[in-house]
């Protein structure tokens, strides 16, 4: 079941360096929220904090709260591995497991979660996830071939199939189309539209047209000055952000005056 995310007073550090300061926002269930902003303003850092991937970097930590379904993801006793199972992630470069078949790639997460599954259960998950990622018809006759044998766009859809196979509530996407050609990009954007029926999606993109095409809400991050932490300037409906944003800095960025 898709869930919303409530972020309050979030500061994100790399060691002593405060990379992102005092983020407060709500991300609604079953919507797509895009994050835009100039390089280095902390979009990816913020996204990785949403499923506790940030802290895998030595010295990296957060202060503040991220609440999903009433639970603070950083609360005492919360298992970061369980958080990452609920909140899946798709990265910039497609990263199928190189030695695995298409089939094994899709269920790799389920097997890691050590759920015992029968062959027919596994077959069902593979088909459902590949259909969900709009890849089934292209690969159904070669499920035992290596995942690396697919095109870049197909590999990215395979990674999305792998992410949804464990039935997360939320999907995070960090520039999922930046390594793809325009046709594969269009396929992923169509898929994002379909996935929001079932998932809450947060996506970082450098491409403002893409933010305008795929998202319901857009958040603009910025830096006050070089070396200062990034912060959220404005989160609004995508329509408002691109037509008449509340903050002049948003308008300057969107109209290409800086960044
Ligand atoms: N592993 C790291 N260790 C230390 N500092 C980091 C690390 N990763 C990112 N940073 C710093 O954190 C800040 C935010 O970086 P981040 O990559 O989140 O920005 P971004 O907005 O996603 O940038 P881009 O659009 O260029 O990908 C930058 O100052 C960056 O140098």
Automatic annotation (TrEMBL):
CDD domains: ABC_PstB_phosphate_transporter (cd03260). It holds the Pfam family ABC_tran. InterPro entries: AAA+_ATPase, ABC_transporter-like_ATP-bd, ABC_transporter-like_CS, P-loop_NTPase, PstB-like. The keyword Zinc does not apply. Residues 5-248 form the ABC transporter domain. It comes from the Bacteria. GO terms for molecular function: ATP binding. Keywords: ATP-binding, Nucleotide-binding, Translocase, Transport. This is Phosphate ABC transporter ATP-binding protein PstB. It comes from Nocardioides panacisoli. The gene is pstB.
């Amino acid at each position: 079941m898709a869930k919303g995310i409530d972020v309050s007073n979030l500061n994100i550090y790399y060691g002593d360096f405060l990379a992102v300061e005092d983020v407060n926002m709500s991300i609604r269930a079953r919507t797509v929220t895009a994050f835009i902003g100039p390089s280095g303003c902390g979009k990816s850092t913020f996204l990785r904090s949403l499923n506790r991937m940030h802290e895998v970097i030595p010295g990296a930590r957060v202060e503040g709260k991220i609440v999903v379904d009433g639970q603070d993801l950083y609360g005492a006793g919360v298992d970061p591995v369980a958080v990452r199972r609920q909140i899946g992630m798709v990265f910039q470069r497609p990263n199928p497991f190189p030695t695995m078949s298409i089939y094994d790639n899709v269920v790799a997460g389920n097997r890691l979660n050590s759920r015992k599954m029968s062959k027919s259960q596994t077959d069902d998950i593979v088909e459902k996830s590949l259909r969900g990622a709009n890849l089934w018809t292209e690969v159904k006759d070669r499920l035992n071939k290596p995942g690396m044998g697919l095109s870049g766009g197909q590999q990215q859809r395979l990674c999305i199939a792998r992410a949804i196979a464990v039935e997360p509530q939320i999907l995070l996407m960090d520039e999922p189309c930046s390594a793809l050609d325009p046709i594969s990009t269009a396929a992923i954007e169509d898929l994002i539209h379909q996935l929001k029926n079932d998932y809450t999606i947060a996506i970082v993109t450098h491409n403002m047209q893409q933010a305008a095409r795929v998202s319901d809400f857009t958040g603009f991050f910025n830096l006050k000055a070089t070396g200062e932490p990034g912060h959220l300037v404005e989160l609004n409906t995508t329509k408002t952000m691109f037509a008449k944003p509340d903050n002049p800095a948003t308008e300057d960025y969107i109209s290409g005056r800086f960044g």
